[in-house]
Structure formats: structure tokens, C-alpha cells
Amino acid sequence: MSTIAAKLGKKIFSNSDFTKDRNDIFEQYVEQLIGNKPLLERSLVKRVSTTIQVFHKSEDEKLRKEASALLAILLDIVGDDYLDLIPIAKNIFINSGDFPNVSLLDKRHPNVSINYGFNNSTKFELKKEMNSVDELSFPLTDFQRMLWSNLKLDKDVVTIAPTSAGKTHIILSYLVNKVIKSDGSFAAIIVPTRALISEVSSKVFEIAKEVDSENELEICSVPRDEKFNSKTIFVMTQERLYELIQRGDLRFDYLFIDEAHNISDDSRGVLLHLTLDKICDESDPQIIISMPSESYQNAFSAVFNGVEFKKEITRHSPVAKILLSVVMKGRNIEIERYNTSDKAVIPKGFTGTTTADLVYRLGKGQSNIIYRNQTDHCENTARAIAALIDDFDITPELEEAADYIEQFIHKGFTLASSLRKGVAFHYGPLPSSVRVMVENLVKTGDINFIACTSTLAEGVNLPAKNLFLTNPFRPVMAQKPERLEDVKISNITGRAGRMVEHFSGNVFLINHDKWNYQDYFDEKEEKEEKIPTYYKSLNEDLASVVQALQGLYPYSEPDQYRFYTIANKLIKEFENGSLDDRLLAEELTLGEEGKELLLWHIEDARNSLMIAPFILEANPTIGYIQQNRLSQFFDSLESYEEWVLPHPKSKDLYSSLVKITSKLFEVGVYVSSDSYSIEHVAVIASKWVSGKSLKEIIAEQIVWDKSRPTSSSVNQSVRNVIKVINNDITFRLKNALGCYYILLTNTMKLKGVDKTSVKLHTYLELGACDDRMINLINLGLSRESAKEIQESIPISIEIKSIYDLLVLLERGLLSNTHPVTLKEVRFLLSK
Known about the structure:
Helix content is about 50%, strand content about 10%. It is α/β, with parallel strands linked by helices. The strands form 2 sheets. It has an 8-stranded mixed β-sheet, with helices on both faces. A 7-stranded parallel β-sheet has the order 3-4-2-5-6-1-7. The chain folds into 6 domains: about 1-130, no CATH class; about 140-315, Rossmann fold, CATH 3.40.50; about 320-515, Rossmann fold; about 535-610; about 635-760; about 770-830. GO terms for molecular function: helicase activity.
């Protein structure tokens, strides 16, 4: 049947009558987008719905994709008018295993009674039963069912699926069930960014709560030295997990790498590689790897040498993506369905050619994401869209959010005024409490328009009906902008359409013919096979790796962490005898001459190593030459009184930070990211680590920015503060002080010096030094929310687990906190 359907489908697809019918439907789809009532004759709907059924029975992926798109379009524009379309859709969704869409059909059309007959009804029930499992309360898609089956068989799994395919929820559900039902086990979940820690932690807690087992499970997101619950799930970035496993006493039963394509990321891929190596040296976990692109499916073969992975791959998502090319010409907007002849022309209804006007025209009444390449572009776009909205009934939630911005950030931060119109922006240098607040408001539907940078590609779950793209690229300072990786574009477009909310998501490509890179959506027969950054750098940048082995790679270069981490990894492998195997890996394409050169420099570096190998391993991003210099400095000291790291509450914190950071700069261990002075970074770091409010830090930044010759705004000052915190303090300075602490402590121990040095670096990443505030951040709360709760409840109350927080909420002890803080707690606790 599929062969016949394929032949028939191809004939229909190339038929001019079908082309006309499809264009007629597309024109009405566009009319609906701008708020007009679609007009489609029953005969046309009947013809196209018959065609959809033929396409769907074909094995031709292109035809099946077209069937999904056309069905989603028809359901959106005439689902309420022609109810006989509903049983056709339900039949297709059930046969496809798209049970989320079956649920959406039932939600939209609860009164449609369908009699399929005994045979079909039995078939549907069997399909539903086959896609249901005891541990989950909803039927799975075919992809989810196969993924679950492989996980339950205790297989090591690589799963590849689009962003909206629902793979993460299945994996988290599996891990929670396995850990809870065990006598005791540890699961490590690696997420690519700190922003995702809270989201994943919240999901884990919600799943545990659904099975009434939340009290049995500990969720940990911050490295610490204390003992853990026997049933613990660690949700961490690779940086935090690497720090945690330096303890040496943890064994993991399960390892889940989310957004695993980051193994090929230039800036962080090598550290992820090192973290995985370290875990597998100590543990033999079930390995679960999740990614959105097939290009990365073999990237872990060398990382997990000898592991046989079961691969579960799909390109299908229950949410169809409708690609729409948009051009403004004169008084009209021309909209084409990308890679088809479908075209509709509508009046602009506005003068000019601004993105904001276009977005408001096409997105009014729907949820919308506007992708922008730069942070200030996000702010400007949000401001411009808000200015177009005259009559807007602000919800209490939005007024609370705007008030929170004014109280806790700054009255002049333009996000407050935008929020009062249901508009927001979202990017990396946003305070964590504000970012969480905005994300929650998007999920609840209070925000209708949100302008975002590539944070969308990092797994942040912000789906909307419409996504607008304008010339996407990766900005590079003083250089030509670079093409975004296909996996990032895929992740970004994956935010168009929300499962169990939309049958489709619209992706608007604005002025596509003027983009720097126009091939993002071209159908490629062969996709490039990606390999880990570790091997790619050896293959393509051997000279830079050799420079790092010699300690000569410039510290001021953005790539210094990558190359020094690779150099350290090579020395470690030489030391433990695994280097020969690494040099034989298929991913390494160096010739014999290149390998000999590399080996010579590795051996020379090892012979030049003055510090203990375990210290080198503990500081993976800092070159051994720099560590040698720092170690020599400590050896030369007669007194350590002035060089021990102070407690964050010490009155000498600022002066000590300036003195120590200057030494770290001198030996090449620390370099600021944007040429900020050490004194400037130390001022912000001192206030940040001691628990001062962001509002206070931002106010001082505004005064400082105004004293400089270049013009500045409140928004820019907020971004400057968060960039310093994110880049210089919680990453660069934190790593440098971690290295400082280990080398200083080791030297004092060898010399028998009885002095205590504080782990200042652990406090720096969190922006807190009080145990209770640290515990609150560990639970998944933002730093500012943790600070407010810390200050609002009696000092005698302990908060050691997420269940203690739940008790506080239920007893009303958090009622004095800002409503936005209270909502963040409720979201975290799934209340």
C-alpha cells in the first residue's frame, strides 16, 4: 500500500490542480493570521483532506511532512467549521502515534463524537495501550515508546529528535523512577547552561511529586563536601559536575547528557569531554545521550570507547513547522510558504519597514518569539512593539513583574515598561531572577511578544505559536559575522509551536533573500559528521595546541581556555598511559609526523611539570606553565598571612581580592574578558559574593558608566554588571581562585603551615556565602529570590531540602516576599 501511496502521492504533488488548491488554503491561512475569517468551500477541504491521507500513507518523508503541515493548517483554519475533518485527523494522529495531538483534538473539540466502527476502534485502543506504560500517566508517541523501551532494557542510549519531540521528559521520568525504586543510586544530569539547572530541577521534582515520592529524592545542583541522600539526582553544568567529582568518592549509576551536541562546542566541549572521562574512570553508569541533530550521533564513539549504544532517532515532531518567507514591498506584505509556490499578498497596514510593525501585524493575538542577534536589538525591538500597543489590559501578574524590576533591578530598566504591554526581552546577561520570571510569564501566556537572542538555542523552553527570524548569525567583534550552526537553528526553530497547545508553529523568515547566510533551511542530502572539540582542535589547530603545551598561547585570546584545557588533557593522558589509545582514535586525522611532533611536546611538558599531576587535573582550564609559576611563588613565601583567601564577610575582602587577583594576572592565571580593571572586577565580586543586592551593584555601575567618556544607558549598565558577573566573576575569577586555593593549600600542607584558606571560589559562582542562602540556590532558586527568602524568615529556621521549602510555603512563612519571588517558589515546587 505504501508503494502505491508513494506513486499516487507524487502524481498528486506535481498536479497543477493540487498546487492551486494548496495555494487557496495557504491564502486563507494567512488571512486567519491577520485576524480575518477564513473562507474555504467544503469541496476544497474534502479534496485536500483526501490528499493528506494519501500522503500520510506514503513512506516518502517529504510527502509525510507535507501531510502534517497541510493537516495542521486545515485544523487551524476550518477545524471548527467542518467537524468531519476531526475523525480524519484523529485517525492520522493515532496511526502516527502522535497522541499529544489526539489530546489537543479532544481539548479543542470535546463534543465531537466519532464512531469508527468496531475494527478501527479496537485498532485505536490497541495502539493507545501499546503506547502506554505503567509509570507514566499519558500515552506516548511512537518515538517516546521506543525510547522508553530501550531505557528500560538498561541499554546505553543515544536519542536524536527535534526540540519539540518530548525526549527530555521521557528520560527524566525514567531516571526519577529508577532512582526512587532503587535501594540507593546516584544519577548525574549534565545541562549546558546554569539557566537550565532550575528548569530541569523543577521538572525532576514535579515528576517525583506525581508518583508521591518527592520526599525520598534529593536534587542537588551545587557542588558540596557533605554526604548526600542515598537517592540523589545531580543536575549540574559540566563545570559544576567536574568540581564535584574531584571529591573522588562518588559513583554514578546513571549519566544523562542533555543537549549533548555541546561536545563539539569550541568554548566548553573539551571540559565536557574531560568530565565524561572522569566519570567513566570511576563509574560504570547507564549512559543516556540526547541531542537534536544526527550530525553528532557518532561524536561520542571515542569518548565512550567500546560502548555499544542503542540509537533512537526520529526527525518527526508532533508539532509541524510552517516555514514562511516574508517580504515587505510597497504597501503590501508578500508571504510565501518556503520551498513551495504558495503565496499570499496582504496590505501592510502600516508605513515603514520596521520588524516591530511586521511582527505586530502578523502576530497580534498569538504568542510570538522574535529572534535577534544582539542584546540591544532585543531591547529595541521589545520597546518598539510595546509602543504599537495602545489598548492593553495589564494583568496583575504583569504589574507584579514590572514592579519587581523597579524594586529589585532599577526603575529605568526598560523591561518594566515593556512588561506592562505584555512584551519582554530575554538574553544571557539578564539577572537570573528576572530571566526565570520572564520564562514563567511566557509559559502562563501573560507575555505575548518576547525578543530573544540565541539563549533559545541553549535548551531554554520558551515555545510560542510564531517565531520571527531576521538575518540570524553569530556576531563576532570587529570581524565578519559567523554562520549559526545548523543544530542551533534547529533548536531555535523548534520553539515554534507548543506540544498539546498547537498543531503547528509558524517560522517567519523576514527578508530571507538579504540574509548573510541563506542556506539554513536547504535540504541537505549529506550532513557533516561532527566530532568532539578535543579531536577537531588537534586536527585543525595543532600549532595552537603546541603553543599551549609550551605555555606560549596568548592568555588574552578568547580560545585560551580551550587550548590550555586540551594541553592539560594530553598531559593527563600521557601520565595515566591512555594517550596511545587517543592517538589511534579514528577521529584524529593527524599524520605520523604531526603525531610525533605532538608527542614530543607532550613529553616535554610533562617533564617540565613542577606541580603534582592531581593538581593539574583539578584545574583543567589553566595551563601547567601558569600553575608552575603560581606554585613557585607560593614556595618562595616565608609568610602566608597576607595570601590566604578571606571569608566573603571579611572587611579585608576587597583589598585581598585586588592583591591576589593582581598576582594571578601577573602569572597568567587570570585575565578579564572585556579589559575591565582588576579593581573594577574586585568591587563587583566583593559585593556579589558577600550577598549584596543586584540593585545596589547596578546602581554603582550606573554611576561608574556615567563617569566614562562613552554614552551609556540603564539597560547597558545592567548588561555590563551581569556580563562581569557571568564572564569575569563566576567563570574566569572563579576558576583562577579555585586554582589558587588548591595550590596554596597544598603548599602550606607540605610546609606544615597551619593556616586556613577559604574556598572563596565556591561562593563566587553562587553569589552567596550564607549556608541557608546557598541551600536555597542549590534547590534551584535564583540568587535574588534566595536572598529575599533568606532575609524574610527567622534565622532559626533551617532550609536543607526542597521539602523544607515546601513546608515554609504551606505555612505561609513566605508571604512577606515579593509576589514574583513567591511565584518562582511555586513554579519550582510545581504548586
